[in-house]
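Continuing from the previous page...

OK, I double-checked the sequence for Alpha-1,4 glucan phosphorylase against my notes and this is the correct one:
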Amino acid sequence: MPTIIVEDLAKLRSNSSIEGLTQSFLHHLKYSLGLNGQEVTTLDQYLAVSQMTRDRMIDLMVETEKRYADANAKRLCYLSMEFLMGRSLGNNLHNLGIFDQTQEMLKNLGADLEEVRESEVDAALGNGGLGRLAACFLDSLATLGMPGYGYGINYEYGLFKQEMSNGHQTEKPDHWQEDGSPWLIERPDEACLIPVYGYIEHATDRTGEYNPMWMGWNILVGIPHDMPIVGYGAKTVNYLRLYSAQSSSDFDMEIFNEGDYFKAVEQKIKSETISKVLYPKDSFEAGRELRLVQEYFFTACALRDITRTFERSGQSYDHFHEKTAIQLNDTHPSLAIAELMRILVDEKQFTWERAWHITQRTFAFTNHTLLPEAMEKWPVPLFERVLPRHLQVIFEINRRFLKKVASIWPGDPDRQARMSIIEEGPQKQVRMAHLSMVGSHSVNGVAELHSKLLKTKVVTDFHEMWPERFNNKTNGVTQRRWLLKANPGLADLITKKIGDDWIVDATKLKDLEPFAEDPDFQSAFRKIKLRNKEKLAQVIYDTTRYRVDPESLFDIQAKRIHEYKRQLLNIMHIVHQYLCIVEDGEDLVVPRTYIFAGKAAPGYWAAKQYIKLINNIAKVINNDPRTRDQIRVVFVPNYRVSLAEVMIPAADLSEQISTAGKEASGTGNMKFAMNGALTIGTLDGANIEIREEVGEENIIIFGLKAEEIYHMRATQSYDPWDFFRRNTRIRRVMESFNTDLFCAEEPGMFRWIFQTILDQGDEYFHLADLQSYIDAHRRAAREYARPDLWTRKAILNVARIGKFSSDRTIKQYAEEIWNIKGH
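Thanks. Re-ran it with the corrected sequence; updated structure tokens here:
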């Protein structure tokens, strides 16, 4: 590479010309990486480009902070256990407006930006939709110029890498920070000291009032690492603050001085385990304890940082809620409510009433589930051991709350038991969702159906008490990541036709509607889709060694493997099609490629069995000469953000087939539609609103509605054996699991499915929906066989998806809950 004299750094960072970027890039190769004349690897190029990009972001971050300070702006603090950021380089280059220049700069130096971007590993800080939603929200906050900051844990190991061994999922460590991350800025000077464990010493103050003292605690140290978040247009850079855990000193010197060196080392390692890995398995006591400590660690660090920032303003804490909004992303951060109360009462000597007034007005809570088993609870004995003072605070919150419940509904002990933050039983439990609702001024669901079911089915008592507290904020995704970055071919086509305003205002996509009937636009749209499918086909071959036909209908279900998401229903339909071909001699209307991706939780036996079943079915079908030109089935391992960015633009049909009333919202459904896939789905989550937006004729809906399922559950009127006996095709599919058709080398492996569905009640209504699902797929095939019709529908999905931008969601939160604005 040529040598260029590096000029003044400030000028260098502000220079976005190709020459300026070249100087900055070469400067970092030499001075950040210590490379001068020797061979430069693609990883070296990635690190130098990232440092070049980060320089510009840091300058903008300093300017942003000054702008907020000058405006005395109210700040949003978004607390989440997960932030599924994926790769950052491409997104940052797009948002800074220097993507094309960087591409040209590298080309001039004999390098390729696409190869450089492939060197980046995904920031594995999340599990699924919850963490990806948080990432989209940060992008929208920065693009809208709003002072919004994320708080979470700087996991050293993210969610596991998924590999396949004889069709089974195996989990490998995902050490995503093994080579460091150029996007994380360590801030050791802003470390937080966090007490944990210990006991309560019951005492009184000088006036005789009860004054409990939290004593004997251990200290954890939270070291913040900031990941700059640049908004599109490069005006605003906020940050995501992630905490790593360290022990309070190199060793516990008391233990060390007693001569037990190894015990001292062991304690240090135990402290630092807290930020080691995302989501420990919590089916045994030690795992549950670590998870609880994780949740407390990051929320306590966040509150320390938030209060410290507020105190710099010199204002009284009586104004805290006027300058700070804290959003709880599900129940995992809900300990923040008890922590703020503890800070105000114990450290700031506020009266309980004054502290509670501030706390309730500061917090807002987003609920992300309708599944009772997903409502987080903690055993009281565990809670008392880990957080004795916080348990006292929660008991006092609950005592006062139940007193209020009793005043509204006197003589109704059942209601008090249902609403109590403490669940009675053989072992008392702390209900974190109840704490979140009681301690917040706003409770929102994430789709219209979800919010309605929360109010009418899940937490009815709370809605009756505080109807004004409940609201809906339908989820959204950022079009900058999921269209501009993930699908550059389509993004360019859209911009050529309607301009680039859609990048910051997704409602402008509506201007594409007239082109849905344009043969030239349809042809260009189809060519882009085919290129995306060819790219995915190559990824599939590289990872599975299966060849798939890009001309076939790509039918994709990519999401966490879970019984309620019904990958099994998809499998049932594939088995049905296979048997129609090999036993009935039928030909499919169009060739199909069924693509699955997603991880199963390590301890979730049924979900892991589904992965094995998919791989076994793929092996049988893909090697059967009778189906070779008609059906292909593949499971693509290790689903992650960067893989999603390849899969989603390639989809023709998007599988969103959860049991109605089970999916809170979904965001994959939005991403697929945004990229021109038609949805086949139930009336669940945000599918309902997507249907309203794109038009009933441009989405394929099947199956029972949520209210029908609720009724069948309540009346116990659903018997899967009825469907088995009455429908020969359903019976044939079910009987295939009772044989060794898909497990010849492992006899009897899938008989449990037959038994679970038929003898244990089919909890997720697979057989009730299967015939409707088969019929819906027939409709999809007929329409795909007419390219002009299908393409028109696909274009209209893109044109009418604007509502589902996270920009719209964030504006609603900002106006209706947080009371913040752009600066």
